[in-house]
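Researcher: Here's the sequence for the chain we discussed earlier.
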Amino acid sequence: MRPFIYLVLLMVCGFHPAHSQETILHFSWDASVTQPDVGPAGLTATTISPYATIAAGGVGGTNGLSAGLRAGGNAANAGDKANIHLVVPAHEAFNVDGIDISLDYQRDEAIGTLISRGANFIFGTAAGAQVTYRLQDPEEGNITTFTSPVYEIDLNDNRFHRLRFVYNPYSGEARLSIDGSVVWTPAFTTPGQTLYWDKTADILIGYDIDGAGNNRPVLDNFTFGKVLPASLPVDLIAFSATSTPAGVALEWETAREENHETFLVQRSVPGGHWKTLATLPGEGDRPYGHRYHYLDPEFAGGTTYYRLAQVDVSGVTTYSEVRSIHHDQAYVAAAFTAYPNPAHDYLYLDIDASPGEIRVSDLSGTDVTDAVIVSPRPSTGLQLDLRTLPAGWYVIHGHWGNRKVLKR
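Model: Thanks. This is the structure I predict for it:
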């Protein structure tokens, strides 16, 4: 097996965005076929194979899991070999929202499944890397199935290959890789969606895998991990998204900031990509933290996701947990023109409809309309006197839409 460090929390590198991983289950197959090195208390696997055994020839010259062969048997005789078929009993700890699963595999055959848990999750075939998984949208309740192609490993190349699949429910990104190289990602991200499990299903290892009777290790170093949200370089102690009449108000608070360059406020929708809405510069170091506000005045109806991307002074980016908001109706793009933007003393509006009632708020959602003098202009235009407002960002609201403007 590979050297394995028994830590409750592991930082996993190479997956973007970065994430933390809690190891739920790990088999090194260094000393036992059925006893995991890490796992829920009291959990032991079983196997229907009379020949499965620990054998030399695993990764790095250590032991691994072999399907074995009947004593004195012949690999050409089907009765002398058996499938590994290792069963790990169902446990609530396996019902994770996001997964980081990996396995070292040496290919000797063409048919079989490496890891599965019911029909909802399948990882690896005898031919190579492949994954099938199902996701549930906690807001909508929809179930979506994703299946990658099979990425074959050379038959009888006599070496182990590292197969790995990661699904991050916070970013909605998934990666299937062989030996550290990504071979597949789905066509779109699914932020906020979680793995949909058959919670009564066992984990099955080595179904129809008999190693072609070669009597050498075919599996080694199986790890089933739970993906946790990334830790921001700053101490983020609160992050919320709240629906307001002005739009979605995002608020977050830090307890401490070190080498902090900027926050990016990002938005996505189911099946969409992350879009950066705003950049809030930092001040390097804040020993006592800071409180931030941002108002998103325009977004699509249905479910909308928000996250923070924190960039440090060296350019490294990490991400917060995802927050979701659901609206039956959209905040539509404004059907009017506001100019000049940025504005100094006056802002002029050209509106493609009757002006109706107008309201002005700051980015925290606080109504500041009383500080603005509104005057009619020819046709359906308006003039806004902003001279009493302090410099900053404001949102103009009307039945014809919303628009963010900057007062210098």
